[in-house]
Amino acid sequence: MPWDRNQMAARAAQELEDGWYVNLGIGIPTLVANYVGDKDITLQSENGMLGMGPFPYEGEEDPDLINAGKQTITELARTSYFDSATSFGMIRGGKIAAAILGAMEVAENGDLANWMIPGKLIKGMGGAMDLVAGVGKVIVVMDHTNKHGDSKVLKACTLPLTGKGVVDRIITNLGVLDVVDGGLKIVETAEGVSAEDLRAATAATIVD
Amino acid sequence: MKKVYGSAAEALDGLLHDGMLIAAGGFGLCGIPELLIDAVVESGVKDLTVASNNCGVDGFGLGKLLDTKQIKKMMSSYVGENAEFMRQYLSGELELEFNPQGTLAERMRAGGSGIPGFYTKTGVGTVIAEGKEVKNWAGEDYILEEGIFADLSIVKAWKADDTGNLVFRKTARNFNPPAAMCGKVCVVEVEEIVPRGSLDPDHIHLPGIYVHRIIQGEHEKRIEQRTTRKREDA
């Protein structure tokens, strides 16, 4: 059985190390916060906060306290606030250990596309280009194929790039792949998914 | 010199002209200068270029300036929450210059700090790098980005004293300090103007040197995505 959204998030949480400052993207990456367990992880929200807490209880929403997805959130005892230039200073400066992001396409050379579909979707890159260029490790979490069943793990991206050669590890519903010299290396497969299944669902070059 | 004004319209008097560049603070609808935006709408000034991370939503925040077609060009990182924006952009009525969010913030900070350009890794190898100078340091490529020098900054803070020292609240700080820094003139709206000496000098987020005019007013503070969790049963 391929992993579901929560299993993918739980697998991604295993990548995080005690003491890390981490930025989680929108969608499945947001769920990773539920699976960090005992590890001391500080979540950054790039609109200007370290130490992001959970959603507020109903009636306790504060319009001055939102995450980068514009959702109401809460603060923790460790929380600090700062302006956007400082926030991206710590991102660009390599202080954030890892970013876990969704993607539309990832290529075998680590190219990432997750911000634009020409003629269709022109919302903007937000902070994604800064994150992939600046943080220590870029981990992509996404479904292995699109809704037509085509591989999202490609030899080369077809969509406009968010970053060139920036992805370190890809976690999909079928397994975990690392970007290495010459292509992608299978790190593990989801329970019941064979390496052959993973290869068959992947357009990118898989190396041993 | 008196910095406190009675209304947003008074505070903007003499500062607006067609074709100007305005830097606006805020992230989504959080920490946006609601009152000053309304006054810019009322003024009828047009052909504006606005540097702001987002462009409000339909009918609120900077979205109001879209409805009246006063904006010629936006410099933003994300404009996904606004149908009128898409309509004007796709029909060619509105120009859009996408900036990565951190690049936009740094361009404002740089402009306000007298730095006309800086190199960044953000956007290397993407459409953002097209036409920009590339420089290599220690084997890595960086692109040249330019500081933003705005004609006017409109920002929102929580509290100010009458000298313009500002304190922001939680994530409503966001783009407000860099936006405030990069304007020739900065007008700020606050929830409360407090007596001189009542703000701890060690806890000022933006010193009054960046602030020229101040107004106090009531804010709607609309929430864009209201997300909550259930209380666990005791």
TrEMBL record, chain A:
MF terms in GO: CoA-transferase activity
Keyword annotations from UniProtKB, A to Z: Transferase
Pfam families given in the database record: CoA_trans
Gene3D superfamilies: Glutaconate Coenzyme A-transferase
Keyword Transferase annotated: yes
Parts forming coiled coils: none
SMART domains to which the protein is assigned, alphabetical: CoA_trans
InterPro entries: 3-oxoacid_CoA-transf_B (IPR012791), CoA_trans_fam_I (IPR004165), NagB/RpiA_transferase-like (IPR037171)
Annotated protein name in UniProt: 3-oxoacid CoA-transferase subunit B
Organism: Salipiger aestuarii
Automatic annotation (TrEMBL), chain B:
InterPro entries from the UniProt entry: 3-oxoacid_CoA-transf_A, CoA_trans_fam_I, CoA_transf_BS, NagB/RpiA_transferase-like
One function term, GO molecular function aspect: CoA-transferase activity
Keywords: Transferase
Domain of life: Bacteria
Record-stated family: Belongs to the 3-oxoacid CoA-transferase subunit A family.
UniProt-recorded name of the protein: 3-oxoacid CoA-transferase subunit A
